[in-house]
Amino acid sequence: MKKSYCPIDTFINVVKGKRKATIILHLFQGDKRYGELVRLLPDISERMLSKQLKELESDGLVNRTVFPEVPPRVEYSLTTLGQEIQPVLKQMFKGGILFEKSIETSQN
Fold first, then answer.
1. Which CATH number characterizes residue 98's domain?
2. What is the DSSP string of 27-66?
3. What pLDDT was estimated at residue 1?
């Protein structure tokens, strides 16, 4: 995570990326195994999902837990920091709905 001139830019730089905010929103609902995230995000390749999860982990938003089983089981969960941004992401979600309605209205 790199600090920007403006805190808003810092926030956006951390959560921007291929479906990062959506990954976080899914993790708000509870811990997820990698396979669950693959099913929840069918429009993203597994390679890109892995990349985004690694970035979220390195930025301190996501925990990755590997269970010593055969085959290995990996679960992803939100850190305290990841949980604290829930209100902001919910408002962004609502804002997105407003913009989508506006787009639909202008196209009709």
1. 1.10.10.10
2. HHT--EEHHHHHHH-TTS-HHHHHHHHHHHHHTTSEEEEE
3. 65
